[in-house]
Amino acid sequence: MGFNACFKGSRSGNSFPLDQVVYRDSDGGLLEVEHDMEQLRTRSAQEWKSLFEKRCGTHNWPFASGVWGKKEWVLPGIADEDIISLNEGWTNLFYAKRFGGHLGLDDLWVKLCGNSHTGSFKDLGMTALVSQVNAMRRKGVPIKAVACASTGDTSAALAAYCAAAGIPSVVFLPGDKISVAQLIQPISNGSIVVSLDTDFDGCMKIVQEITEDKSLYLANSMNSLRIEGQKTISVEICQQFGWEVPDVVIIPGGNLGNVSALGRGFDMMLELGLIDRKPRLVVAQAANANPLYTAYKSGFAGLVPMRAQKTEASAIQIGNPVSYERAVRALKKYSGMVYQVTEEQLSDAAHLADRTGLYCDPHTGVAIGALIQMVEEKAISRKDRVVVVSTAHGLKFSEFKTRYHKGELPGVHAKYANPISECPPDTEKVRAILEKRFKEMV
């Protein structure tokens, strides 16, 4: 039906085709992907809902993907044969009944975005970006590789999607600051991996300078193609609730493309009539890397970049987020709140949730730590429908979890540690241990 989209400057209104290698407007602001909403409105809200429902759970390429099932809202102009999909999206919306009961909440859910091909929500944005690059290369645009700076999850997603497309990839990682599970993913998928003696912000500086050579395409979230894939989280959540809107959505924030993406998804559903009200968006930051929280406390007077300190939530150990302005716009539009969470709070929160059947990475621990603060402050009522967005799979952070249960995390008391009981093969001694442990569980 001729749906189309382009890059557009949010302040200047300048527009650029999606197959142009460009990330910023002439005024330095980040570009957004803008859709022709008049064209999209030629279908009614019910027609869009019916189309999205029809594609859900099918094996009709590429629409089984949670991203490409909403292709017209993501990259409508791309040919199906150019799409690089690993069947991302459609992740479990986990009803956290027992955990919610512990907190005094009746309607708590966790969107398990880490149940994806590379173990994080970054797959949602990377399928869009790498598909667009694939289409550009087929048209003759001279892109020889795609590059990113990463604290782990972005590099894993980029490496996997580029490997599936047969496109070279380059990743810049901060030395000794990511988990082994995250490090081995881009290595295994054949990326050129460069470890830099700096933090994420230093890696981000290098990748922006390197990609001034337009034959190297930038894959970080300052490239709004990533946001287009990630915004489908919002649409997917509402679809899983039968097109009802949750009251509160909580997400961990580092470079802040994620909350921007959530806002864009809700924006489109509101504008096209699929939903009729807004949720509250909440960003949770590690206290050791909290520039958005600091800005929030000043009424968003402005971003003051900081030197992020070490946090177990390594993917959000970012002191100068490139999507700050986007995030602030989304938070202002959606009655946003920002919380900071200490290392002990995030560690205990993750492992308290684990006791109820989850297996939380430290970033989800940050989001749950914010949730606990909101409950304590009565910023959430018992009947509110709350969704925590879990951005990565806990298995990628098994070292963090092992150290927690061994009591080896510095400055963390490990309130919910579950130590292994060692015992000789003696039945009576085993019974004694079990009796002791059962009493401790009461």
Written account of the structure:
- The protein has a 6-stranded mixed sheet with strand order 4-5-13-10-11-12, with helices on both faces. A 4-stranded parallel sheet has the order 8-7-6-9, with helices on both faces.
- It has a domain of 206 residues: Rossmann fold.
- The model has no long low-confidence stretch (mean pLDDT 95).
- It has 442 residues and is an alpha/beta fold.
- The protein is 39% helix and 14% strand.
- Helix 5 packs across helix 9 and helix 14 packs across helix 15.
- The chain contains 17 helices and 13 strands.
The DSSP helix count reads: 17
Residue-averaged pLDDT? 95
**CA-based shape:** globular
Strand fraction: 5-15%
At the first level of CATH, the class of the domain at 93-119 and 227-405 is Alpha Beta
Spans of at least 5 consecutive residues with low confidence: none
Brief summary of the model shown:
The chain has 442 residues and is of the alpha/beta class.
